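Milestone 3.1: sequence recovery, worked example.
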């Protein structure tokens, strides 16, 4: 491991490894198209039903299938050629989106088709994600895994920031049919990246046949991998108590003013922070004490979350208020401050993710990497949903500033306590990675 002198993002994974570069470009275009469809499906569901509950059920209905897909897909990635598995799952994703576009063009789309195809799409994408993540070390080498993680973090931020907004604009301007069709076209780029990869069979002999026994074997490995397991626990803690997206619509209407525009700006601020932290992540890969990197970045994430909550408290107390605050009269000063704190939280979360993904991809043996990536995706999927429940309940019972302030303090304290007990994680050395 060498320490780079530049703070800017390390581009060597895409300048020195053409296979990864093609895959990364495919992820950018395909992921952008996927975000278009997610927003279009939500708008389409609301147009068909007029129900906020029906829209929320799109994510809820897919939760259990996505968990199953993460575990089962990760197991398959440790048994079969990962290139073929990713191609198969990507084909299912493409076909479900193409069917959605065909139904929209024919006028036959209804809420049941939207639910069913959204679940199929989410499950297939989960398998693609777990399989691609398991491929990364072979494509770029262990030294460039942190740089690859930073590039993927930047991609994720761009997709979240641009995709939903563009999807809303396209639906408003051209309708659902054309928006779904654009996703079908963009998703073809996934096949370019995957089709040109070499065969990528898992190394080792830990997995022999697919099935529940193989999944149990992966979970047994996790039970004996204290560093990976602690990273998962800390991530669930952070996402449960520090994921305020569920209250942002109400914040835009009731607390800071500006309505949907404020909600969109606040959501985009999180993605902007992730993008900026990736752009200036050049020296992260040279940090050997990754355990300390994980803990400190999560605690910074908690601090920014609490500061965001204090901004909402300031709004409730009438600080920096222009007078009446509503959709037409936003509190610009506090909106800017809230954006700064949410961007800081997004940046810290992304840095934590770079450390955790690097540890997962380098310290875990190749023949277990798919299953552990599957568990990781379950954590990433489940944490924000627990967070939505936490924020929704506390905001309803008390006030909108309470869950982020309390959550930020909980994150800082719980992570500190966990780290004190995590002897192995404190001693973790990136030059001698151990799970």
């Amino acid at each position: 491991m060498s320490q780079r002198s530049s703070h800017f993002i390390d581009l060597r994974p895409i300048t020195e490894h053409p296979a990864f570069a093609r895959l990364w470009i495919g992820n950018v275009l395909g992921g952008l198209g996927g975000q278009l469809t997610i927003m279009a499906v939500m708008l389409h569901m609301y147009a068909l039903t007029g129900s906020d509950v029906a829209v929320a059920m799109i994510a809820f209905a897919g939760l259990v299938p996505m968990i199953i897909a993460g575990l089962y897909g990760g197991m398959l990635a440790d048994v079969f050629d990962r290139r073929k598995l990713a191609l198969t799952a990507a084909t299912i994703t493409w076909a479900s989106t193409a069917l959605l576009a065909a139904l929209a063009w024919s006028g036959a789309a209804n809420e049941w088709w939207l639910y069913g195809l959204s679940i199929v799409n989410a499950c297939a994408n989960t398998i693609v994600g777990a399989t691609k993540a398991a491929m990364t070390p072979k494509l770029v080498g262990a030294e460039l895994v942190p740089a690859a993680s930073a590039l993927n973090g930047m991609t994720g931020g761009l997709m979240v920031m641009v995709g939903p907004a563009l999807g809303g604009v396209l639906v408003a301007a051209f309708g659902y049919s054309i928006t779904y069709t654009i996703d079908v076209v963009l998703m073809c780029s996934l096949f370019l990246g995957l089709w040109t990869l070499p065969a990528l069979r898992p190394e080792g002999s830990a997995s022999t046949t697919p099935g529940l026994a193989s999944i149990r074997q992966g979970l047994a490995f996790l039970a004996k991998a204290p560093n990976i397991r602690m990273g998962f626990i800390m991530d669930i803690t952070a996402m449960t108590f520090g994921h305020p997206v569920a209250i942002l619509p109400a914040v835009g209407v009731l607390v800071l003013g500006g309505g949907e525009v404020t909600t969109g700006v606040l959501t985009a601020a999180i993605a902007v922070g992730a993008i900026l932290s990736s752009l200036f992540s050049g020296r992260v890969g040279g940090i050997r004490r990754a355990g300390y990197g994980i803990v400190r970045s999560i605690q910074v994430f908690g601090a920014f979350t609490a500061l965001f909550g204090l901004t909402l408290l300031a709004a409730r107390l009438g600080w920096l208020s222009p007078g009446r605050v509503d959709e037409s009269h936003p509190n610009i000063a506090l909106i800017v401050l809230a954006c700064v704190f949410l961007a800081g939280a997004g940046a810290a979360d992304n840095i934590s993710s770079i450390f955790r993904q690097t540890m997962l991809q380098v310290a875990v043996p190749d023949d277990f990497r798919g299953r552990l990536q599957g568990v990781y995706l379950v954590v990433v999927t489940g944490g924000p949903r627990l967070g939505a429940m936490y924020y929704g309940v506390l905001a309803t019972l008390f006030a909108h500033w309470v869950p982020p302030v309390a959550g930020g303090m909980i994150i800082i304290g719980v992570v500190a306590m966990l780290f004190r007990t995590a002897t192995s994680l404190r001693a973790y050395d990136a030059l001698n990675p151990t799970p």
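The chain has a mean pLDDT of 87. Residues 35 and 108 are 22 Å apart (CA to CA).
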